[in-house]
């Protein structure tokens, strides 16, 4: 499975895996949940239980890489977020008022602070009184954070 990921990604996966699976194996649903969510994925409990069951209730790092490959092909977070915006866009214009977007980011799910939203808006060139093309916004917001070291 290593051929499906960049070396840098595998290093990140390995570090997270051994941080939470100290014995070298994932033995519980809780361990798998924490590890995958720490890596930015959002699998459902039933998906996680299925992955663990497929591996006989015990998962080595090689098994975990296989699961990461399978799940990363299933999960497409930017598309899911855009689809959620589209569901609420009754006019079908692809736009959302910046004030409404700010409210959503600060009050729904993992609520962001005012400073965090300000940073995201600055990065995406969004002003408080503007209309935001949500597809463009999601591309910027879901882009990987660059490494500067």
Automatic annotation (TrEMBL):
Keywords carried by this UniProt record: Repeat
Record field: transmembrane: none
Pfam family of the protein (one): EF-hand_7
Domain EF-hand, residue spans: 83-141
Residues making up the signal peptide according to the UniProt record: none
Xref: InterPro entries: CALM/Myosin/TropC-like, EF-hand-dom_pair, EF_hand_dom
Keyword Repeat: yes
Protein name per UniProt: EF-hand domain-containing protein
Species of the source: Cryptolaemus montrouzieri
């Amino acid at each position: 499975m290593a051929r499906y990921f960049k070396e840098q990604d595998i290093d990140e996966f390995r570090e997270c895996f051994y941080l939470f699976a100290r014995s070298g194996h994932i033995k519980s649903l809780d361990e798998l949940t924490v590890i995958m969510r720490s890596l930015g994925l959002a699998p459902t409990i039933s998906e996680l239980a299925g992955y663990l069951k497929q591996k006989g209730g015990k998962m080595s790092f090689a098994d975990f890489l296989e699961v990461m490959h399978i799940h990363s092909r299933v999960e497409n977070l930017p598309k899911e977020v855009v689809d959620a915006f589209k569901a609420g866009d009754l006019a079908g214009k692809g736009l959302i008022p910046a004030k409404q977007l700010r409210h959503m980011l600060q009050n729904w799910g993992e609520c962001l602070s005012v400073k965090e939203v300000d940073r995201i808006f600055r990065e995406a060139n969004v002003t408080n009184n503007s209309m935001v093309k949500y597809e463009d916004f999601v591309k910027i917001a879901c882009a990987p954070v660059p490494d500067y070291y």
